[in-house]
Description:
Elements: H1 2-22, E1 25-29, E2 34-42, E3 46-51, E4 59-62, E5 66-70, E6 76-79, E7 86-89, H2 96-111, E8 117-121, E9 130-139, E10 144-153, H3 156-169, E11 190-204, E12 207-220, E13 226-241, E14 245-258, E15 273-286
Amino acid sequence: MNIKCSIYIVFLILLFSSLNNFAQDKLFFRDGKVIPCKIVAISENTISYKDTIANVPLIMVSKNQVLLTEYQSGTIYMFSRDSSSISSLPDMDETKEQRKERKMKEWKEQEALLSNNILGFYITQLFLGRLTVSYERLFANKSMGIKIPLSLTYDALGALAEYSANNSSSGTTTSSGNNPNNVQRNRGTGIITGIDVNYYYDLKPQLKYYFGPRVRYGTDMILGGIEGLTFQLQNGIFKSRGKHITNTLGFGVGFFKLSQKYVNYTGYNPKQVYPWASFTWRLGFRL
């Protein structure tokens, strides 16, 4: 009798496990079609899902085509013709906090499918004498990032001033043949690199706040070709736009220390620490 009971219990366990494995989400379309699937995300205007067949691509449909969705957990959402309107059954009404929580959950499911590699360009720095690109790798479910920047520096403002002065004088020279208004720029280029460690916190779907340390070392030609180390604590916002584009806006404060190579230079004190700040905008592309 005990053996029969044990066999019966094992059978029930296997049956329950089998049924649980076959449990699926469902999409109920307005034309009467029902699709068993895995619902990946519900955005403002679309629903993304995967078919039950293995190794199939993500499918995206308009909310206007769907009457309701049923998750395997039993949660049901009903949609009106207006894709911005959604009701949760059986409550039918969704509070502001529930809506906020649902949208954040949907975004995190979408975000998990996005690339963790970001190639960045700093367009505004071109006018300030820096050609900068960066590579950032995201970790820990995109809550942390390590970024490596590389800048080619040049005296952009000095070149403009020299060009303006030379053209405004329009050939006026001294008796020695030199232009009295001649402006000399810092010729040549320098290299600056470093590392950023960013910690990201979700504010709302597609928008994060970040903060962390930033270190740079190299030669800045627009500041006279001086070489030194900067350390800052920076913070800002990180915005995702679609699947591939990101925008980052940040502000940092810290200090700058001259290189020891200036120890014998007149007018420089390499042991002195100077206050330092930066404002950056990065246009990023997920790779």
